[in-house]
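Hi! If you just cloned this repository, the fastest way to understand the data is to look at a raw example. We've pasted two of them here, unedited. The first protein comes first, obviously.
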Amino acid sequence: MKLLFWRRKPRAEAESSVATAVPAEPAASIAMIERSQIPTRPLAMPIELRDALLRFALDCLVAGGARVRVEADDLISAVLPDGTLVRYTTSLTRARAEADTELLVQGGAALAQLLDACAAHAAVASLRLEAHAEPLEIVRSQLAAPPADCGACVHGEHTELCQSCPLRTNRMVLAGMAKHAAPRIARQWMGRGVELTYSIISNDRHGRRDEQVRVALEGETGSHLPLLAPELLADAQAQNPPRSAAKELNVALTRAERALTPQLHAAGSLLRLLAEREYRARLDDIQTTSRRLLRESPDEAPAIHEALERELARLGEVYAVEVDARLTSTCFVERPLAAVTIPTQAGTSVELVADLAAGILLSPTCTACRTDTRAASICAQGHLICPACRRHDDADSHSGCPICAGVSMANSPSDVLSEPGALTLAHVDAMSAATWRLFVTWLLEQDGYRIERGATLDSLDYWLCRSVSGDETLLAGAIRFADRRCLSREDVERLAAQRASQLAPPALLISTASAGESAREASQRLGVRLLDRTALSERLDGLVARQLHEREAAGRDQQTRAEAAATTRSALLSELQHAEEALASAANTRRAAGRSAVASAASTLMDALVPAQRALLAWETLIHDWTAAFDEREARDGSLSLRAGEAAFAEMAGRARHLGAALAEAGERVAESPGVGDLGYTVWRRDVLEQLSAQCEACRWRVLGIDPSQWREFTAAHDAPAFERAAAAAATALHAATRASRSYAELARRARLEESTA
């Protein structure tokens, strides 16, 4: 039996058959569209931005409510809530080609505007963190008892950690816990805290320095909390600030101000020390110039005093040191906390708090000094005592507990550094990380080294330094510990490992911690010089004394030199006086009559004149050295500056005694010659005596022109009229020498001295 069925014709064939049946109409002309040169991609493939600045701009715009579109890997556009269209790029070529596209670059106006908007948007925030760990697991992994054979970490600060100390693995050490006693969860709750971000701005002569500091505090008590880590923000939830936000913020601000005050005072003391020498020099220049103008123009005293006040005010503005902390953002944080009770050996218990969001144990507070600590011991009464308080002598008889001994241990850093002053080791302990690096840089500069490059490895900062002369290199390292433990062998080896294999420069490790025995042994073995807490304190005291009391030290040195100069001045005047007395006694009435007697007297006088002139020439050199030992202009403080030292002045006194004896001997030989003679002998001898006396007088007035005993006042020590008299006496000696030369020529002609000599 056959089944008949219809076969459906394909649609394309049906349409073609219909088309053949219907007559075709003329087709309309179609314009050809040129293919775009911009490559396209499927809508499912997102465009990845290649620059972090563009990704930051994208997040900032989205947070501000803008509609953002990624047009290319280096270009984004957005429509702001007010309808404004903005376009940002990191390509300089695109920014130049497109007038409406702004360039995002570090230091640019567009990026600065986005940063300001982001800072304003994030100035106040509120977050809720989720729990990521169990309380008992946190206690088991992070709390440990001190090693049985050591325990130095809880018995006193500035101690060297043993190789098995739990502090090396960032765990908490607690002595006095009961053995085999399991901790117990007392309660769990959502704790509220405030994280404050401050911008510390330091301004001095050399510019501005900015530093960001974050402080996290508990809202009600103000105790310290861990800072927010980036990994905790992944599942954090935004929420409205708590109702008691104002109260909690006030408590946090008060505690944060107390915590930041030591840092600000330390930064101010360091910056003031850096500018002290230059400021004092400029101040002395201004005051010295004012005093000189007052001496030269006493009638213009009011105008000079007014100008001095303006210059001093301007100098104070230029060298002013300003350190300011500005609150830039506030974040209210709710975090899950748990209180865990730890049994003690005395039958009491200690309660520790675990942060379930960060998975860490919060540092407990010492019962005596109220400071946070990572190592502590528990006394019989249940007091938790930090190593610093346990070292107190009065607490030894009460198992190291100052509370049981009735000793007050108020040693807050804010109390120690309540006022800024001279830089001390306490300031160095309170410095922030950036200020600490600036201090180390200054310390190396005092030793004649400048930093070329550096890096950071965990808590160790190290730099390759070169001396100012360029012929020496130094590997300098700096390290600080928050728990005030000693330097160990590992710390020295970490710095020594950074030496270049070929150069192997000498190394220096600077630290506020004391050096332990293993660190000293390693430093000698590896050739690393240590500048630990004791040596750093001595070095700092010396540098501060040199910087702040440099003028006093210079004054003491000048006083010593002035005393030596005064002794030399007395010796010079005494020898010149003897020479002048010898020349004054040369006047006599003995007469040389006849040509032969005149020739003999002239020969005797000439034999005495030659050594006298030689001695006076040496005296001229000595007096020149004497005047060159003093500055011709007044010093910055208005005093007489002495260039020569004690040895130089003593050497001048010795030369004066030697030359004085030679000149006195020549004067005695001159006195032996007849005072009167024929043929012009009398005139020549008188001119010779006048010449020698005038030369001695010129030397004496030049010595009298400087009085070292009055060195503190230049006008009193520098006698200008005496130098004028010295110049007049020198002119008289020159004229007398000219006359003596002429009179001797006349004597030689009349007495025929050449024939007598022949």
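Ok, and the second one:
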Amino acid sequence: MNDMWIGDPKVEEAMTREFGLVDQSTPLEKVTELILHNSWEEVLVIDESQNLLGMVTKEHLVGVLSNGFPDHLPIKEISCRNMVTTTPDEDLSKARDVMRYYKIGRLPVLNDSGCVVGILTAKDVCNGFSTKLERLGEHMFAVMDNIAEAIQVIDCEGIVSFWNQGAEKLFRIKTEDIIGKKLKEFLPDDLPLKVISSSQSYRNIMSEVREGVYVVRHAVPVITPNGNVVGAVCTTVDVSQTKALMNKLEEANNRVKNLEKLMVSKETPEDFLFYTVDLKTQRVLEQARRVGNTDATVMIQGQSGTGKELLANLICQNSKRAHKPFVEVNCSAIPETLFESEMFGYEPGSFTGGNRSGKPGKFELANGGTIFLDEVGELPLDMQAKFLRVIQERRFYRVGGSSPIEVDVRLISATNRDILKYVSDGKFREDLYYRLNVVTLEIPPLEVRKCDIPGLVDKFLWKLSRVYDRGNITVNHEVMDLFIAYDWPGNVRQLQNLLENVVILMEGDVITLKSLSEVGVLELLAGQKEVSILSASIPAANPNEENYSQIVAQRERELIQKALLDCYDNKARAAKLLGIPRSTLYYKIKQLGLSG
């Protein structure tokens, strides 16, 4: 039998298996002796084939004998033949209901063959349910004791009635030391005690139980069906690792920002904040400057790495809030359990071990300025509802606070997702979308504004030369050709990261095909098949000879001319034969001065 009962127990788990059983011809005198000797309360009467004929209780037998019935009378003559029976696999609750309905105190239990296998009495029913509750309690106790979260249970007097292993580990208090004692003797003003005094629930409460140990707590009153509070239960989850990762992420972001400030010195050209010579992108920048003069809510859309954060900064710098706080929030990086305390802050003394002076949230820090919601499309639906409430009401409550905090912030959001599709799929709230999408600015990807690549390369190299204390680093025309031909799926960020990688690892001040090959990015830019062509162009002789570039160009010319000749000047087939994009072939034909 499985000790972990789920649902109703069965009759076979509660029935009595030792019972009185006599043949139908047994005289009353003999039955009386058997009942007295075995302390039976009843006997079941069977025939020669072991089939059940009836039942006689001790009370009934005594009454019959008292009325003068002869001792030698067969037991079948006084047995009750209209019996209600049950089966071993019947639910115990159903068998109990049958006994109540017929007002009987016992049920014979028959198997599928009709043979008697037990008897179920009212006492058996009570014991069966008691055993179930006891085992279920043991099971639940084992589950709660071994669950990873810390669980505390107290009564209305603040006396601890349950304290699992998780609570032992987190609070460093042994179960045997605290059970039956008042919680305040160990943890004065702990959260469960506040529940008892206020009858209020506390959820998602961020706390630092001791230095470096951060937790999220939920505490609720235990309420009976008639509405009486009989205690409180509190669960606590250790989120120290998550908090540590968030702190490291914030430190990394701060280092990046400090590096950017170092890179953008007084010598930096004004257009470096968002460089472009592409007419369509310039129109986006002009729209950003115009909307910057208003307080309109802006949603910036574009692929990853196109510069959405830079555009948000440009909007802020062209606004009346330019000298006010600019607070960035990576919406995909905030765990749900920490959302409220991170975004809205918490009050002093709102939980044990917290910062004694409380902590302001992101909205409070951005008051008077701009809050930038990056990757807003990654917000879970329940977080979206909380954002919407603050946006609509322009006020919020700190965790543990009772007074509203009013804020005046300008909202800018950014996403690389198709938010309208998210709305239609039910992944993004429509009302929040229209709140955030008063003005939409979409940044074109780098692959459609390749005219920006030479200028971006120059400006990134200008900064990197200063950051890494190098001379003025440049690229030769073969490398620039590769940069322009490549589609840059990671956009401007990918270009910047690749250049930084090359600058760190290269020797000399000129980036060449050899430089790209040595740092392992040539294959990425040229494609595997094109690399074989370019590699064939690089002589095996001393790579420092002066005619290196001329040999490369001449070898490329010969290969392209041969491919065009073999394909009868069909450029699509020639590009396929060479293993390069058709756009690259057209560019090479023009660059090398071949007849096109």
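That's it. A detail worth noticing about the second one: The CA atoms of residues 397 and 404 lie 5 Å apart.
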